[in-house]
């Protein structure tokens, strides 16, 4: 973006981040757009970081930021936690390797611990990301039910693959009626097959959801949902409990995507808060402490679809098979259950058991402080969210779904976000806020001071 196309508010940003701009000029020569994930980019260019510690990031220009993006919520123990480093070294010394490529004891031990927090996860499988986790959960649902259609909610994200990459951030003018949303592809290159096999449901609209599910009950394998949309727009208790009842009645598998909310809405996730047991759950982000992991778990009879059977492996080239690979659900991955990452996950749980409740308290303090500042400034605002994750939403109206969010003051929110970057408060513009055990009273005070400076001196 040329300087003459940027509003005046960008000039301080451009001055502070000159080396980021120069770095991107080199990066675009070897990476499309200069990034390895589209979500990491924003206008006029992303800030390039070089160091992280505790609750802070430092960019290539030497600017320091209090980090509220936290790798999209993954770093609930903060950057470079000393206990995590100790555990990695200890695991390497104990196991003598960073990768067995075989079953190992840590897989069992962590699975039992996860089950103590998430009783609905009667059996578990490990993956390498939340995206891989939702992909496996959907495959399990398809295999178990013998049906192919999937229903997801408008505004919800479950990974960047064809089957679910619909109606995440659709143009409201093209998204169809509010009670019967239209599937809108969110990428080029999606096979039209998937548009025919996806249904879009209206979040927090039990009547509309029930009508769609009843109409297509014989075709739908599963409903997949973020119980708290985007990590910060909660389902109402009546909606989530009603959805559980409807899916049970219709024989549709209910998948909770708790990649964002797992361990952040209390250690037991959103399902603990709502008192609802889904058929399948997907975890990720926080549990990996910054390393790639996903965990899928649920009812034993569904999870057993992925159990290996002799002479049915996709790689088995022996003759005289009694069964074929297509008669079982194939799930594999060289790095599934990576011993170093599982050791880190165990440490994350130790830290959260000890300090997790304090993070919840500090999050509430920050939310209240922000709401007070906006109220005194006369700007409608709510710090919307549960647990240790929230978003600054500029409206006084109830926000129950994606379309409500679109009706908030998004342009002012974006302006505030860019001004806050100049104050050393980091989240990608328009993104949610996540807190970690490293965000203490000092960081809360500095954040409130930065907001006060923006709201009262720069707007």
Through-space gap between termini: 23 Å
According to DSSP, the number of beta strands is 16
Largest sheet properties: 7 strands, mixed
Please identify the structural class as seen in this structure: alpha/beta
Percentage beta strand:
5-15%
Outline the secondary-structure elements.
Blueprint: H1 11-16, H2 18-27, E1 49-53, E2 56-59, E3 64-67, H3 70-73, H4 82-95, H5 105-117, E4 123-127, H6 130-145, E5 149-153, H7 192-196, E6 198-201, H8 206-215, E7 220-225, E8 228-229, E9 233-234, H9 237-250, E10 253-257, H10 269-274, E11 280-284, E12 294-298, H11 300-303, H12 339-377, E13 382-384, E14 389-393, H13 402-406, H14 410-422, E15 425-426, E16 433-434, H15 441-458
Parallel strand pairs: 3-15, 5-6, 5-7, 7-10, 10-11
Antiparallel strand pairs: 1-2, 2-3, 4-12, 8-9, 11-12, 13-14, 14-16
Helix pairs in contact: 4-12, 5-12, 8-9, 12-15
Offer a concise description of the structure.
It holds the Pfam family Aminotran_3. By secondary structure, this protein is an alpha/beta fold. It has helices spanning 11-16, 18-27, 70-73, 82-95, 105-117, 130-145, 192-196, 206-215, 237-250, 269-274, 300-303, 339-377, 402-406, 410-422, 441-458, and strands at 49-53, 56-59, 64-67, 123-127, 149-153, 198-201, 220-225, 228-229, 233-234, 253-257, 280-284, 294-298, 382-384, 389-393, 425-426, 433-434.
